[in-house]
Write a structure and sequence with these properties.
- Helices cover 38% and strands 22% of the residues.
- It has helices spanning 21-24, 30-41, 70-78, 96-106, 115-129; strands spanning 4-13, 48-56, 61-65, 92-94, 131-133.
- A three-stranded antiparallel beta sheet has the order 1-2-3, with helices on one face. It has a two-stranded parallel sheet with strand order 4-5.
């Protein structure tokens, strides 16, 4: 059993991670990690990719890639740059089909296995961002 030295949660650009202070804090071989991460996330270029890195005493590591943040997916679906300053202000909209697509994509990272429950979670995020669902 390897001894865990550190567990770090980060958000890195999909297919485009590069060595830097963020990764240095994880205590892993940055060049090797970037190569591995970029190979696994090449299909997600332009997206923010949450990752959990577990660094071990022997300088080896493991990482788990999570789904992109819901807010980022909602903004992309609505075709806008940022959400509203308050939930009362509507700045954009998405369709029910887009809501379902985002919910299905986020399902592995949500605490439910039910698509309808996942849609409610994503709809709540939409409300907070000032995004209407049509």
């Amino acid at each position: 059993m390897k001894k865990v030295v550190k567990v770090v949660k980060m958000e890195l650009p999909g297919g485009n991670a590069h060595p830097g202070p963020k990764l240095a804090s994880a205590g892993v071989n940055m060049a090797k990690f970037c190569t591995d991460f970029n190979a696994k996330t090449g299909d997600r270029k332009g997206q923010t990719v949450p990752v959990i890195i577990t660094a071990y005493e022997d300088k080896s590591y493991e990482f788990v890639i999570k789904t992109s943040p819901a807010a980022e997916l909602i903004l992309k679906a609505a075709g806008i740059q940022k959400g509203a300053g308050s939930a009362k202000q509507i700045v954009g909209s998405i369709t029910d089909a887009q809501l379902e697509e985002i919910a299905k994509y986020k399902l592995p990272d949500l605490n439910t296995e039910d698509v309808e429950a996942a849609k409610k979670v994503i709809a709540g995020t939409c409300r907070q961002m000032g995004i209407a669902i049509k």
